[in-house]
Amino acid sequence: MSSIAIAIVVSIVVTAVLSLLISSASYKRKLKKKQEEATDKSDLILKEAEIAAENLKKDRILEAKEKILKMRSEFEDEANKKKSLIISNEQKIKQREQTLSKEIENLKRKEGELDDIRTDLAAQLEHTKKRKEELDKFNQQKIQVLESISKLTAEEAREQLVAALKDEAQTRASSFIKDIMEQAKLSATKEARKIVVETIQRTATEHAIENCVSIFNIESDDIKGKVIGREGRNIRALEAATGVEIIVDDTPEAIIISGFDPVRREIARLSLHRLVQDGRIHPARIEEIVTKTTKNIEDEIVEIGERTVIDLGIHGLHPELVKMVGRMRFRSSYGQNLLQHSREVANLCAIMASELGLNVKQAKRAGLLHDIGKVWHEELEKPHAIVGMELAVKYKEHPVVCNAIGAHHDEIEMTNILSPIVQACDAISGARPGARREVMEQYIKRLKELEELGLSFDGVEKCYAIQAGRELRVIVDAEKASDERASQLSFDISQKIERDMQYPGQVKVTVIREMRSVSYAK
């Protein structure tokens, strides 16, 4: 290599080294400068942080002082209030003590007054005892004088007095009994009517037989074995599902269904009919058929109600009332079918209202619904007339119709002319011979016995059984019986009827005493 090249290389190397040294010195100066700036900035931040911390400390101290002052003020206010309350209570206590002291002084004064009164009473009692002794002596002397004058002892005079007052006491007793009976009737009429209506089927054998038993006819007695089932399981299942009694005895080609609820009897009869037709009789099938029949009978009840209101020309009746009208088909009253009776009353009311120029539609409506309370499913301790009126009010019937329903047995006061018409038509339908399903011979015999019982009493001139035997009208001789005797007679006859006769419902005994004076002008 030439010397020039070497020199150039050395020059380049020296230049590079110098350049590095210069740049390194420059970098160190810049780095030192940055370190100084960073140190100054950190010192500034620390000073600012110290100043902020000092300010925050002062603020917290001020807030704490304010809170302490506020708490001290609240405490002082509360203490002042309690102090005022204590002072007020102390004043009240002092006033109460003063009042009690005055009351104690008054009691002491009254106690002294009572001691004086006791002393006076003791003196008066002693004086009264002396006066009583003097009066006893005087009465004894007076009795002796009277005995000497009347030549009677006190016991004899007492007996004569008792004999003289006997008739008057009997008259007063009769009047007293009459008042008691009237009061008892007022309080017992509502419950008695319900009991008579609901229990007549249990007390009269002929009515119970006709109204509580249904006959299911079969083609062959072989079916009875299928109905009974193995060890009686089929008949037990049928009775449990329908709630009636199934009687399978030696009656040829017949099964007896017994129960007080006619709807249940009808369900049992229809279920038996379907089971016998189907031929499959076992507990599961029985329950299935009874369930279907129950639904069908409910539909039939609604259909009967709808057909009835359509036949009578009654419109706008609530569906629940229509359903109740249908249930009347399976209800009886004293042996008379309730739906047939209600239809008859509705037609009679319509005829009467037409003749009198009244509202025929309302009359027919009231006649049909007058016994609706008898088919209400709930057992209420109210007369059926009141229950029916409440149902009519509930289902928005006209007030005239509601009053006619509630008043047809005089349970409430009649407020319109339609009410007595419904009452009269109800009596016409129920009172005519044969309507209540009595055998004619028994019916006539019972009325004759009723009249003979009335004629057996002294002073009775004539006796008539009317209203299908529900009323006995007795006419007495005015010369042989007084007004008091007539009142006593009605009570005695009613008691004898209760003891000696059997009858459905109740018998009203009316005693009539009529005084007539006759003169002739010649």
UniProtKB/TrEMBL annotation:
Query: Is the keyword Coiled coil in the record?
Result: yes
The organism named in the record is: Dawidia cretensis
For this protein, what is the EC number?
A: 3.1.-.-
Give the location in the cell.
Cell membrane
Q: Which HAMAP family match?
A: RNase_Y
According to the record, the segments passing through the membrane are: 6-27
What is this organism's lineage?
Bacteria, Pseudomonadati, Bacteroidota, Cytophagia, Cytophagales
Its gene? rny
The reply to whether Oxidoreductase figures as a keyword in the UniProt entry is: no
Report the record's Gene Ontology biological process terms: mRNA catabolic process
Pfam families reported for this sequence = HD, KH_1, RNase_Y_N
Name the UniProt record assigns to this protein: Ribonuclease Y
| Coiled-coil segments | 90-120
UniProt similarity note? Belongs to the RNase Y family.
A GO molecular function held by the record: RNA endonuclease activity
> Gene3D superfamilies per the record?
Hypothetical protein af1432
Task: Look up and give the membrane topology term.
Answer: Single-pass membrane protein
User: What this chain does, per the record?
Assistant: Endoribonuclease that initiates mRNA decay.
